[in-house]
Amino acid sequence: MPQTQLAIETATTAAPAPPKALSLEERLTLINTEIAVRLDEAAVAYEINTAHIPIEPVDLADVVTSPIDTGPVVTGADPLPELYPTPAAALLQRAHHRLLTGGWCKDVLVDEDGARCMLGAIRIEAHGDSGLEASAAAVLLDAIRREFGDDVDSVPSFNDAHGSARTPIRMVDQAARLADARGL
Questions:
Q1: 72 φ, ψ to 5°?
Q2: pLDDT tens, 43-65?
Protein backbone atom coordinates (compact mmCIF):
# COMPACT_ATOMS: atom_id res chain seq x y z
CA MET A 1 0.00 0.00 0.00
CA PRO A 2 2.75 2.51 0.67
CA GLN A 3 3.96 2.11 -2.94
CA THR A 4 0.52 2.99 -4.30
CA GLN A 5 0.37 6.10 -2.21
CA LEU A 6 3.83 7.11 -3.35
CA ALA A 7 2.87 6.68 -7.00
CA ILE A 8 -0.19 8.87 -6.52
CA GLU A 9 1.87 11.59 -4.85
CA THR A 10 4.39 11.50 -7.65
CA ALA A 11 1.69 11.87 -10.28
CA THR A 12 0.00 14.75 -8.52
CA THR A 13 3.13 16.65 -7.68
CA ALA A 14 4.58 16.58 -11.16
CA ALA A 15 4.80 20.04 -12.71
CA PRO A 16 2.27 20.76 -15.45
CA ALA A 17 3.61 21.07 -18.97
CA PRO A 18 4.13 24.66 -20.13
CA PRO A 19 1.31 25.93 -22.38
CA LYS A 20 1.92 25.50 -26.07
CA ALA A 21 1.95 28.74 -28.07
CA LEU A 22 -1.05 29.04 -30.41
CA SER A 23 -0.51 29.44 -34.10
CA LEU A 24 -1.95 32.45 -35.95
CA GLU A 25 -4.82 30.38 -37.36
CA GLU A 26 -5.69 29.03 -33.91
CA ARG A 27 -5.67 32.54 -32.40
CA LEU A 28 -7.89 33.87 -35.22
CA THR A 29 -10.30 30.98 -34.74
CA LEU A 30 -10.44 31.66 -31.00
CA ILE A 31 -11.08 35.39 -31.53
CA ASN A 32 -13.71 34.65 -34.20
CA THR A 33 -15.50 32.32 -31.79
CA GLU A 34 -15.42 34.94 -29.01
CA ILE A 35 -16.81 37.62 -31.35
CA ALA A 36 -19.59 35.29 -32.53
CA VAL A 37 -20.59 34.63 -28.91
CA ARG A 38 -20.63 38.36 -28.13
CA LEU A 39 -22.71 39.11 -31.24
CA ASP A 40 -25.20 36.38 -30.33
CA GLU A 41 -25.52 37.81 -26.81
CA ALA A 42 -26.01 41.31 -28.23
CA ALA A 43 -28.70 40.06 -30.62
CA VAL A 44 -30.59 38.40 -27.79
CA ALA A 45 -30.31 41.55 -25.67
CA TYR A 46 -31.58 43.66 -28.56
CA GLU A 47 -34.57 41.36 -29.10
CA ILE A 48 -35.42 41.51 -25.41
CA ASN A 49 -35.03 45.29 -25.20
CA THR A 50 -37.16 45.95 -28.29
CA ALA A 51 -39.84 43.27 -27.90
CA HIS A 52 -42.35 45.77 -26.49
CA ILE A 53 -42.07 48.21 -29.42
CA PRO A 54 -44.93 47.77 -31.93
CA ILE A 55 -43.81 47.67 -35.55
CA GLU A 56 -45.66 48.19 -38.79
CA PRO A 57 -44.77 46.40 -42.01
CA VAL A 58 -42.53 48.40 -44.31
CA ASP A 59 -43.18 48.63 -48.02
CA LEU A 60 -39.80 47.95 -49.59
CA ALA A 61 -40.67 50.09 -52.58
CA ASP A 62 -40.61 53.08 -50.22
CA VAL A 63 -37.31 52.05 -48.66
CA VAL A 64 -35.26 50.77 -51.58
CA THR A 65 -34.40 53.68 -53.80
CA SER A 66 -32.91 53.65 -57.22
CA PRO A 67 -32.61 56.22 -59.95
CA ILE A 68 -35.90 56.83 -61.66
CA ASP A 69 -35.60 56.38 -65.39
CA THR A 70 -37.73 59.15 -66.83
CA GLY A 71 -36.24 58.82 -70.27
CA PRO A 72 -34.62 61.73 -72.02
CA VAL A 73 -34.59 65.11 -70.34
CA VAL A 74 -37.68 66.99 -71.45
CA THR A 75 -37.52 70.75 -71.77
CA GLY A 76 -40.54 73.02 -71.94
CA ALA A 77 -40.78 72.75 -75.74
CA ASP A 78 -40.16 69.01 -75.99
CA PRO A 79 -43.29 66.89 -75.73
CA LEU A 80 -43.26 63.80 -73.58
CA PRO A 81 -43.05 60.68 -75.75
CA GLU A 82 -46.26 58.68 -75.66
CA LEU A 83 -45.40 55.39 -74.07
CA TYR A 84 -48.94 54.05 -73.89
CA PRO A 85 -51.33 53.90 -76.85
CA THR A 86 -54.54 53.98 -74.79
CA PRO A 87 -56.02 57.31 -73.63
CA ALA A 88 -56.27 56.70 -69.86
CA ALA A 89 -52.84 55.08 -69.69
CA ALA A 90 -51.32 57.96 -71.68
CA LEU A 91 -53.06 60.49 -69.41
CA LEU A 92 -51.69 58.78 -66.30
CA GLN A 93 -48.24 58.62 -67.86
CA ARG A 94 -48.36 62.37 -68.56
CA ALA A 95 -49.60 63.02 -65.00
CA HIS A 96 -46.72 60.94 -63.67
CA HIS A 97 -44.28 62.97 -65.73
CA ARG A 98 -45.84 66.23 -64.53
CA LEU A 99 -45.46 65.16 -60.90
CA LEU A 100 -41.81 64.26 -61.51
CA THR A 101 -40.96 67.49 -63.29
CA GLY A 102 -43.38 70.01 -61.76
CA GLY A 103 -43.42 68.76 -58.20
CA TRP A 104 -45.90 67.10 -55.87
CA CYS A 105 -47.98 68.68 -53.13
CA LYS A 106 -50.69 67.69 -50.69
CA ASP A 107 -53.83 69.27 -49.22
CA VAL A 108 -54.46 71.34 -52.41
CA LEU A 109 -54.78 70.61 -56.14
CA VAL A 110 -52.04 73.12 -56.97
CA ASP A 111 -49.78 74.89 -54.47
CA GLU A 112 -48.28 78.38 -54.82
CA ASP A 113 -45.14 76.94 -56.47
CA GLY A 114 -47.14 75.14 -59.16
CA ALA A 115 -46.67 71.66 -57.71
CA ARG A 116 -49.73 69.43 -58.02
CA CYS A 117 -51.34 66.60 -56.14
CA MET A 118 -52.15 63.32 -57.87
CA LEU A 119 -55.63 64.42 -58.91
CA GLY A 120 -54.39 67.90 -59.85
CA ALA A 121 -51.85 66.37 -62.24
CA ILE A 122 -54.54 64.17 -63.82
CA ARG A 123 -56.92 67.11 -64.14
CA ILE A 124 -54.44 69.41 -65.90
CA GLU A 125 -53.30 66.64 -68.25
CA ALA A 126 -56.90 65.69 -69.13
CA HIS A 127 -57.29 69.09 -70.87
CA GLY A 128 -60.94 69.42 -69.86
CA ASP A 129 -62.03 65.89 -70.83
CA SER A 130 -63.95 65.02 -67.66
CA GLY A 131 -64.76 61.48 -68.85
CA LEU A 132 -61.10 60.69 -69.43
CA GLU A 133 -60.20 62.33 -66.11
CA ALA A 134 -62.78 60.19 -64.26
CA SER A 135 -61.55 57.03 -65.99
CA ALA A 136 -57.92 57.73 -65.08
CA ALA A 137 -58.84 58.61 -61.47
CA ALA A 138 -60.84 55.36 -61.18
CA VAL A 139 -57.88 53.30 -62.43
CA LEU A 140 -55.58 55.16 -60.04
CA LEU A 141 -57.90 54.45 -57.09
CA ASP A 142 -58.06 50.79 -58.12
CA ALA A 143 -54.25 50.59 -58.27
CA ILE A 144 -54.01 52.21 -54.83
CA ARG A 145 -56.56 49.81 -53.35
CA ARG A 146 -54.75 46.82 -54.86
CA GLU A 147 -51.64 47.72 -52.93
CA PHE A 148 -52.99 49.44 -49.80
CA GLY A 149 -56.35 47.73 -49.33
CA ASP A 150 -59.97 48.86 -49.56
CA ASP A 151 -59.56 51.25 -46.61
CA VAL A 152 -58.52 54.03 -49.01
CA ASP A 153 -61.56 56.25 -49.56
CA SER A 154 -60.36 58.40 -52.44
CA VAL A 155 -57.36 59.53 -54.44
CA PRO A 156 -57.17 62.92 -52.60
CA SER A 157 -57.29 61.24 -49.17
CA PHE A 158 -54.50 58.86 -50.21
CA ASN A 159 -52.45 61.75 -51.60
CA ASP A 160 -52.88 63.85 -48.46
CA ALA A 161 -51.95 60.95 -46.16
CA HIS A 162 -48.35 60.95 -47.39
CA GLY A 163 -45.55 63.23 -46.28
CA SER A 164 -43.34 62.70 -49.30
CA ALA A 165 -43.89 62.37 -53.04
CA ARG A 166 -42.33 58.93 -53.43
CA THR A 167 -45.40 56.73 -52.89
CA PRO A 168 -47.99 58.93 -54.67
CA ILE A 169 -45.78 59.31 -57.75
CA ARG A 170 -45.05 55.58 -57.79
CA MET A 171 -48.77 54.83 -57.62
CA VAL A 172 -49.54 57.09 -60.61
CA ASP A 173 -46.91 55.19 -62.60
CA GLN A 174 -48.38 51.83 -61.53
CA ALA A 175 -51.85 53.07 -62.48
CA ALA A 176 -50.58 53.96 -65.97
CA ARG A 177 -49.30 50.40 -66.37
CA LEU A 178 -52.61 49.01 -65.06
CA ALA A 179 -54.62 51.15 -67.47
CA ASP A 180 -52.44 50.02 -70.34
CA ALA A 181 -52.87 46.37 -69.34
CA ARG A 182 -56.65 46.88 -69.28
CA GLY A 183 -56.62 48.65 -72.63
CA LEU A 184 -58.06 51.88 -71.17
A1: -70, 155
A2: 998 888 888 877 777 676 666 66
